Amino acid sequence: MELKHIVRRAVRRWAEKIASKRAQRQAHMVLPSGSDLSKRKAGRLEVAGSMAGHIGETTVAESRPEAFTRPTSRKAEAHDAKDNAPAHLDHRLAAFAEERYELRHNLLTGQAEFRPKGQDAAAFLPLTARDLNSLCLAAHEAGIPCWDRDVSRFVASDRLPDYHPFRDYFDRLPPWDGKDRLDALAQRVSDSALWVSGFRRWMLAVAAQWMGMGDGHANSVAPVLVSGRQGLGKSTFCRNLLPPELSAYYTDSVDVANTARMEQLLVEMGLINLDEFDRIPVRRHPALKNVMQLTDLHVRKAYRRDTLRLPRIASFIATSNSHELLSDPSGSRRFLCVEVERPIDSTDIGHAQIYAQLKAMLLGGERHGFTAEEEAEIQRANVAFYRTCPAEEAFARHFRAARPDEEALSVSLPELIALLRKRQPGTLTGIGMQEFSRALVTAGVERRHTEKGNRYRIVPLEHEGCKSAILSE
Questions:
Q1: In CATH terms, is domain 179-385 a member of 3.40.50?
Q2: 10 Å Cβ neighbour count for 383?
Q3: Which one of 49, 153, 296, 315 is most buried, counting C-beta atoms within 10 A?
């Protein structure tokens, strides 16, 4: 009996397997009479159970003839399969989306953008996850059986035309009418001759960078609008330098300590305003000047694992409510400082003709970089905007730089620091040797290299006892 039971169980399992395979073949060959997939699955399970209970008695088709019907047209079945094939589905989805929307791929942000078809006055908007889901649902309503991944693949493909905001803007500009407008634009801020000429050169560099005509050189100069008074419209003028069509590519939200974010802004923005420049710590100035000189950058875009080498687009401008801005005389050539003495009129800026003029000048071969002579002139003018160094102030109270033909004291840096601390305790607290050395050079003190190290030629403002005090150190 035990052997008979084992055999019977084995036969039953074999019959169940055969019944299941037959049911699957029948399901592929015929269409279910039910209205959805659940009925088809239920029919298969019921047939399999019937086969297990009545081994060999009947086939699935014989036991439940009402469960399946033969298709009325194999041609119709083939047509449906073709409509749902991946290639044809992608084509239907693309046609559906392009019929309803204008789509493009923004080269600066790396995002897909859209606006409804026929609404030319509407602005393009970034295509968000919510928009993608809405597009997928609308496609379902139109009878396109796509998945959200199909929609995402479509908008991330080269089916969307590339769009460069700045190149597109310059391509659409009208011809220049020949009237110069750059000097008048600069004079809204100041009538200084250095400012007017420097602003013209800077605007040419801005346009060259936007047009991709930088020739491998970055626009490393930044105008700085300075005024102790607030409410003169410095930031408004900076913002309004961009035409309305490009206003999204202006930012004054900057963290100079975040180098990665700064580099990303260089390839995504057109103009970066270092608002309240005087609040940037002196220790950040070297890193900032390094960023200002970058040309091509390796940036990782959102949702990408690899980095892309992208050209720089952005230029810098700055504002300040304090005149004490600069600390490094050699690096000050990067900043075109101008004092704002009156409210700035930022209304009715004729952007189209201003940028048409810049485009015509650049295509005509106009130089857009500053010469060494121009940078030296900027550097001389920036003396009025140097940040007062406590060490320099302390030095100026007791000493001055020696003239070339004058008898002077020759002291080392530690000797001078020790003397100043005796005369004015606490003055040099927190000031390093390197910073103090730069302060002496800024004050015009001659530095000579000797066998005993660097020596500085100085003259005490009070001669009594000064020399002996130094020598006693």
A1: yes
A2: 12
A3: 315
Q: What is the pTM of this model?
A: 0.68
DSSP 129-167: HHHHHHHHHHHHHTT----HHHHHHHHTSTTSPEE-HHH
Percentage, residues of the chain above pLDDT 90: 32
Please say whether the beta carbons of 31 and 71 come within 8 A: yes
**Structure token digits, residue 472:** 């006693």
**What's the chain's length in residues?**
473
Task: Read off φ and ψ for residue 381, nearest 5 degrees.
Answer: -70, -25
What is the average per-residue pLDDT within 278-291? 85
Chain segment 426-451, per-residue pLDDT in tens: 666 667 777 778 778 777 788 888 88
Residue bearing the bigger pLDDT, 438 or 85? 438
What type of residue sits at position 235? S
361 token code pair: 């000048």
Compute the average pLDDT of residues 37-50. Answer: 44
Q: Print burial letters for 198-235: b (CB count within 10 Å at least 16), e (below 16).
A: bbbbbbbbbbbbbbeebeeebbbbbbbbbbeeeebbbb
CATH 1.10.10 in the chain, residue ranges? 390-472
Name the band, by pLDDT with cuts 50, 70 and 90, for residue 335: very high
Topology (CATH level 3) of domain 390-472? Arc Repressor Mutant, subunit A (1.10.10)
Amino acid residing at 164:
H
Burial class (CB in 10 A: 0-12, 13-18, 19+), 160: buried
Q: Which residues of the chain form CATH 3.40.50?
A: 179-385
Can you tell me the distance from the alpha carbon of 369 to that of 315, in angstroms, rounded to the nearest whole number?
A: 13
Cross-strand pairs, 411? 456
- In order of 221, 333, 356, 394, the CA distances from 292 in angstroms are 8, 12, 26, 33
